[in-house]
TrEMBL record:
GO terms for molecular function: transmembrane transporter activity. Gene3D superfamilies: MFS general substrate transporter like domains. The keyword rRNA-binding does not apply. It comes from Circinella minor. The chain crosses the membrane at residues 73-95, 116-134, 146-165, 204-227, 239-261, 309-333, 345-365, 372-395, 401-419, 431-451, 463-482. Residues 78-485 form the Major facilitator superfamily (MFS) profile domain. Keywords: Membrane, Transmembrane, Transmembrane helix, Transport. It comes from the Eukaryota. Residues 1-14 have a biased composition (Basic and acidic residues). One of its GO terms (cellular component) is membrane. This is Major facilitator superfamily (MFS) profile domain-containing protein. Residues 1-40 are annotated as: Disordered. It is a multi-pass membrane protein.
Amino acid sequence: MDEKLEISKNEKAPPDISEIDNLSEKGLNNDARPPKFRKSPEEAKLVRKINFALMPLICSCLFIQFIDKSTLSYASVMGLYEDTGMFIFFYLMSLNDEFHFLIKSYRIEIGISQNQFSWLGSIFYVGYLAFQVPNNFLLQKFPLSHYLGSILIIWGACLGCTALANDFSSLAGLRFLLGFWEGSTYPSIFLLLSTLYRRSEQSIWFGVLYICNAVSIAVGGFIGYGIGYMDGMRGISAWKYAMIIWGSLTALLGVAFFFFLPDKPKSRWFRLTSNEEKLVDDRTLDNAVVQSRKFKKEHIYEALREPRLYCYMLISLFLNLQNGTMTIFSNQFIVDMGFTRLESVLLNIPNGASIIILLSILIFLSQKYNDVAYCGAAFSIVSMIGALLLCVIPSGGPKLIGLYLSATSPPGAMLNTSISHNVAGYTKKFFYNGVNMIFYCIGNFVGPLMMAQSTAPRYIPGMAAYVVADFLAALLFLYLRWSYKRENVRRQKLIEDGNVPPPAKNREELDLTDKEDIYFQYRL
């Protein structure tokens, strides 16, 4: 690295601020926060090209990925229990108060069935976790279009084959494989967005990714309701139709990804002019992600010594304890409130709509105030309030408010935005993303297992744990903001005092980490 910098470490010439995209001409503002960037008309046109070529595919992938992994929730009210021998639990849970003696009489069978369903939710994330290490390696070895396209085809086949499962063990095996192949999705897409978009643009698109998940809840509810009426057609249960339909659509999307996904800043699908190629170079300097096929161990060692890595790990863990449970158990929660099975599918539609509203408010506030950490902390508290309402409201329709507020995807969007904004160096960035996904998996794995049958129907111990976890996540967001602000102030003073050498002319090509590049400014 030293020879590439083309300068001496001891040189103290003042920096050429005009070459530094991260700083304004007068330095940082009083809050140690980089100013908002204003696009030229030419760059706005370039961004539209990128959006048009890239985001329909990305949004389709996130939409279908969320539906694929949450088909288990719909399947639970579409005949899954009856077809796989786990029907005792769901039947007894639907009985009213006058049959409670039956529940007590069948407590052993109920416990087994509850544990089985919880494990079906959790084992998906065992597969997800198992793929993180090879995924991080493979991401640097193959073009993303071919890599993700092939994996989409394989996981579509796994989902379709789930329709053939007839017992718990076959369901568990296929859920593990589904999670294994889906484990490539988020790290790949996060890295791609970090590569193609300026940091000031990324909070919008990370929010949009989570909106795609919310849309899949709402639209999936409509489609799931329709699939529910296919039950018994040609002797096939509705839940099997759901697996076949979504598995086939996933495989078709994989073919589109393989051939048409733009996977690098100067992809032929963007149809760049010579001037636009220069703009791409400038954008690469801003987002501090230089695509590289070289694995750099020193980036990993640097990351492991940073306290903020462990903050991100804990935030991911705390938020996804609740996320795993809400994804798998939402339909059963609604049935327990006194609604029918098909009504529970329909009532997931306003659940998705509420998440879209929350995410839209989040994106607006984050862009308006140019802040990520405060928004992450605030919406962690909103999720906490949702879990608290589920805990304290005994039953009935009003409990739906708690369900609709309990989604942790809004603060989750801010978590991933913060990582994307504040980690530079290609190997270091995908290591941070990989570690984030590992704890995403652990949280989603442990969360459903906290729903002990003995605590049904309100699951107070589990819900209380989610309340505490959300509160701790909010505190960690605030700590990260304080830490980044302090470092920005330190760097600003070094630059103003002329205690650092000027930036290298080829700075955008060096693949420097945020620690190595003193001119890199953290976004709060």
